[in-house]
Amino acid sequence: MKQKDLPLVAGDPKNIEELREQIGPLVHMDMLENLLNHARSRSLWPLTFGLACCAIEMMAAGASRFDLDRIGAGVFRPSARQADVMILAGTISRKMAPAIKTLWDQMPAPKWAIAMGGCTIDGGPFKYPGQYAIVEGADKIVPVDVYVPGCPPRPEALFAALFKLEEKIKAGKKFNR
Amino acid sequence: MDSRFEVAQDPQNRDTYYLNMGPQHPSTHGVMRIKLHLDGERVISAEPVIGYGHRAHEKMAENRDYLQFLPNPSRVDYLGGMIYNVGYCQAIERAMGIDVPERAEYIRIICNELNRISSHLLWLGTFLMDLGAFTPFLYAFDDREKILDILDRITGSRLTYCYARFGGVSLDVDDVFLEQVANFCTYFRDRIKEFEKLVIGNVIFRERTIGVGVFAPDLVQKYAITGPCLRAMGVAHDVRKAEPYGIYDRFDFDVPTQTEGDCFARTLVRMEELRQSIRIVEQATSAMPDGPFVAARVPRRIRPPEGDCYFCVESPRGSFGMYIASDGSDIPFRLKLRTPSFSHISTMPAVMPGTLLADAVAILGSIDIVVPEIDR
Amino acid sequence: MIADKLSSFIRDAAPYPERGYHLQGAALPCNLPQIAGVFLAEGFHLEMLTCQDRRETDRVFRLIYQFNRYGAPQRHVISADLSPDATAPSIAAIFPAADWYEREIFDMYGVVFDGHPDLKRILMEEDYVGHPLLKNFVDPPSPYRSE
Q1: CA A113 – CA C29 distance, rounded (Å)
Q2: Among A61, B185, B228, C45, whose Cα sits 20 to 30 Å from the Cα of B288?
């Protein structure tokens, strides 16, 4: 870049835009961000948090046969302050909804949510005219990243969801929605 | 933060405070909340707050016909799903007078008891995890997966079974199934001894459970306690013996009892029940008859005669009853689920005061609750 | 024998193999504490307590009390018809198990029990409006429902 091409007077927005285009970013964060995302995707710490039937399959996924530790997601944290992925495993009742919102707000960013099972996708088997007790879909409370269908999904399905989430985290802002 | 979930000081007595255990707490085994009033570490009073897992099963029953309700019972108590599923079918069969073929009865018994073992194993793992021991959880889940493999092969699901049908079961079993079951029984008999060595003899475990969470004898009658909690108090009552349903009266098994009524007694009772379940499974496997697996004549429209009826089965947690009020139509007028955990958790205000906070966790673990079963 | 002591309430023997009950009876709501006392003295426990919304056909709420004892089953059911605007006496002082069952009935049907130590909602939130198990129940609008 030639020094003499730079405008001498700053403050003109148009000039600044041109300046940016000419010199490009001053500090390249992409590499660091990619590295961080790679690390994040391989050490997902889920919140110990079972709502209903699916929680048992979540426990099975963490136990001896399936072993979530193999992909670095086996460190279940009982405190929301230490967790970075919320696995919503089971039916969310309306009485429980404020508590889940609180837990989600307590989790430090970056954070992700997995909706496990039909109930958290849209109410699943418990959705019918006259239903008065459940939240029809976890996305009414928290932003969900991955949906896992099934009633309950098998542990393999939860693994697949975590792999999807890894992909999403690694892609970062380039993630194609 | 929602003020309902906060820790608060007692305004009357500055030395004591209120603590919420739950709704999200690793040892409430789901979403339940216990409001504890504490003096230091000692519990002054405990008030369970339930309803966080309420899914309106009973309203759902009034919205759909008897067949459409079939997948629900196994979701009421997902650990004993097979027993609830079979129990619901048996309730309708008795009300309608449907005869079940011999082979189906035997298949149901085998599946029921395998399910009971898997439920007790999960209880063992999570209870000990509440007490701080992580290894038994891995051992228990390892064995549980073996049972799930067997049941998965014939039912197609691992947890929330919908295998029983009115008048039988949905699919027949083959010789491979019987062989797998027999192999599992042989394997598991040795495994129980290993569990006992690992757990029962452990000094820390004994210190944490002996004399902790004693249910006073008068609670039995006042709170209608059933299941292993009852048998740990010296009452040898088991629905399978008292009012045998299915073909339980043909099998030779004991009802294990203990007299102390503490957490340790409840553990011993459940460990012995594992053995008794294996005994039943072995007897059923060796006597499995040939024949149809579902009744030839099942009415196309399930319409129990007008009136009330009650049917109860022995679930891993206690006596599970279904009260069905029929008005003679396809849809139940009222279907009430009498669940054992509901009765057991209602004793907590009487049992917990005076114990330490850590013991409160042990008590909650030892009574083996399933939250959606409390809330339905 | 329980049947003698409660002879004025017991209506008829129910066929156990079909119904699961040994004796069925009907009582006036005001007699319920007395009946519960007799059952308690005889060593029975309150196995279940529930309600039916029979306002459309009989203009009543029907309370159903089910007592049983350990060992050989002796399952007795007592029903009490309650007019929709009346209150029922609580038996929580006799059978503490009734405490939560009565709260559940209050929550689901709006039936009020006199003398209950702490009658409040049990399954729904405390600020919930309506009683879900009523036959004419309509759920109030909720942000958690998708249309």
Answers
A1: 51
A2: B228
